[in-house]
Amino acid sequence: MAQYNITIDSELLHQLFLSDSKDSGVSKLLESVLNQVLQAQATEQLRAEAYERTEERRGYRNGTYPHRLTTRVGSLVLRVPRLRNGKFSTELFSRYQRSEQAFILALMEMVVNGVSTRKVSEITEELCGVRISKSLVSELCRRLDPVIEAWRDRSLKDKEYPFLIVDALVIRVREENRVLHRSMLICVGVNREGIREVLGFVVGDSESEESWGDFFGWLKDRGLRGVDLVVSDDHKGLVKALRRNFQGSSWQRCQTHFIRNILSASPKGLQGELKTRIQAILHAPDMGTARMLLMRVLEEYEEKAPKAMRILEEGFDDAVAILSLPEKYRKRLRTTNSVERLNEEIRRRERVIRIFPSRESAVRLLGAVLLEIDNKWAGGRKYLDMDEYYEYLSQQQSRSSPKIYCL
């Protein structure tokens, strides 16, 4: 390991012990030491001191250029030697970069975890004595882009995803000097091993059939296959896109939204008892029982709440599609509630930012949130035990296969 002779100015040393300028003194001391190290390294590489004549000299100095470092003790301005042959090198910056990288990662993690760029700027001033601008914090966060894009565009060909849960959130984005409402479309899948994955998300213009269709097409282009059941709310554009892109799959209408739609069309005095009766229908042990309970409710409330009964009757088949599956899978697949954690995390970040400065920034920040949750799911417990499901499928196939009789 190289050793260097460092000199310290007495005035600088005196400043180090002044109570009112302690931090400034440490900063100046470190700056002085590092600049002397750089000059000593230049001497080593040239094999000669400044203005020294020797047969071993390998080149000549050509002045210096400033290089600013932001450290925990403040901002340092280093005078990096220039050599005429342009070959000066130092490990000083590569060593610092490891520390700087940890510092930058901490800044990015603060933003991802819901700290505003303004607050991050204030924190860096407290820690380092230098205020990092909000624009610089945003620029640092752009380093997340390659990671997020690689995860978003990953191939889905290696697995099958029998169950999908899709949902959308409305966020505000600044575009063309206006604040516009944009739809964030999210798809969560449960793979053959019973592990949940965030399969994809996009920030689109709306929740139209075209937007959902493009989203599902993108997922299929990446290899999405083996879909048996899709859970979502009753948004018309979404449902049309599902039926067009996942023919042969069942659609389970979110029961939470379904109950909400019925009650909103019911007289207030009937909402409590109707909710109990509707839940009994939706939680019935089999399709026959559910239909029997449906007929009783329709008969009893047809005149009291005609609009609500019309919604109930028209949406019944889609709301109880889950009854075709074994009972152990119904609780977690009867609603879109399983993506509520995603929604909560996204809303928590959104409340801090309020308005995303661009669509790219929304993808960056919300993508980092979803990537983090996806990693937790991958390393956690199974969401569903799939053994009984595949046993059920096997039984269904054996019943539907044609029988051949020999005479």
From TrEMBL:
Family label: Belongs to the transposase mutator family.
* Organism expressing this protein natively: Thermovirga lienii (strain ATCC BAA-1197 / DSM 17291 / Cas60314)
The protein's name is Mutator family transposase
Q: What's a single GO BP term from this record?
A: DNA transposition
Source superkingdom: Bacteria
Gene Ontology molecular functions: DNA binding; transposase activity
- The chain's coiled-coil residues are none
Keywords, alphabetical:
DNA recombination, DNA-binding, Plasmid, Transposable element, Transposition
Name the InterPro entries on file: Transposase_mutator
Q: What does this protein do?
A: Required for the transposition of the insertion element.
